[in-house]
Amino acid sequence: MTADLFDTVADLPAREAIAEGAVILRGFARPLEPELIPALREIVAQAPFRRMFTPGGYQMSVAMTNCGTVGWVTDRSGYRYDGIDPESGKPWPAMPPVLVRLAREAAAEGGFDDFAPDACLVNRYEPGARLSLHQDKDETDFAAPIVSVSLGLPAIFLFGGPKRSDKPVRHRLTHGDVAVWGGPSRLFFHGVAPLADGEHALFGRQRINLTFRKTR
Ligand code: SIN
Ligand code: FE2
Questions:
Q1: I want to staple 191 with a disulfide (CB 3.0 to 4.6 A). Which of 18, 158, 164, 210 is the partner?
Q2: pLDDT tens, residue by residue, 43-98
Q3: pLDDT of residue 52
């Protein structure tokens, strides 16, 4: 898969370095669109989106599900990776090969070879949904990068630094963009601004984000 195809689609560069070890690959997921959509539909049929609760008792505005050998969950007892979907009592759906391939190729393009994710968090943002600044630090292996795929409505991705107080830079992510961060920026704070309303030709009034991680 080459990103050059998209150089002429947008006036943004196909590859945008946003920090040391962090890059946005514009439109990188688009060639896989015909396979991605049915794969996502299958995951959501087995493990429907749900709005989880934070340990502090707040219900998240982003609805989530997972695929992979483990999935990220939060409830009153804390955050964790769990092999079992607490809603169904069954294992999470397996990670479809097309998702594994997308994550692996994007990571390699971002400079991280041999990425082997075991978890894919699927986030659904409806208008107004947001994700406050946080670090991805529930994993045990920080050598592997984070690969984050945006589909559907555009969002403003906030990418900060190693400290919560570092002022985040706002990056607009649109359908098919993939952000990869690892190495020196693996633990950088990031989040998503409240989603603006709109209508996407394939995804309707929502944004779907896939976050791939190697948890152990
Ligand atoms: C996340 O940090 O888990 C999701 C980021 C995004 O939705 O772009
Ligand atoms: Fe995150």
A1: 158
A2: 999 999 999 999 999 999 999 999 999 999 999 999 999 999 999 999 999 999 99
A3: 98
Average pLDDT of the residues of the chain: 95
Q: Is 130 exposed, middle or buried (0-12, 13-18, 19+ CB in 10 A)?
A: middle
The CATH number assigned to the domain holding 205 equals 2.60.120.590
pTM here is: 0.94
Pairing of strands 71-75, 63-68: unpaired
Per the structure, how many domains does the chain have? 1
For ligand 1, atom 7, which residue shows the shortest CA distance? Answer: 209
3-state secondary structure of 96: coil
The amino acid that residue 110 corresponds to is G
From 177, 209, 215, the mutation candidate for ligand 1 (largest count of ligand atoms within 8 A of CB) is 209
CA atoms within 13 Å, Cβ hemisphere of 13 = 6
- Ligand 1 within 6 A of 115 CB? no
Q: Which domain range does residue 45 map to? A: 2-213
**Residues of the chain under the 70 pLDDT cut:** 1-13
Query: What is the whole-number distance in angstroms between the Cα of residue 79 and the centre of ligand 2?
Result: 13
Check if 211 has its Cβ closer than 6 Å to any atom of ligand 1. yes
Ligand nearest to the CA of 24: 1
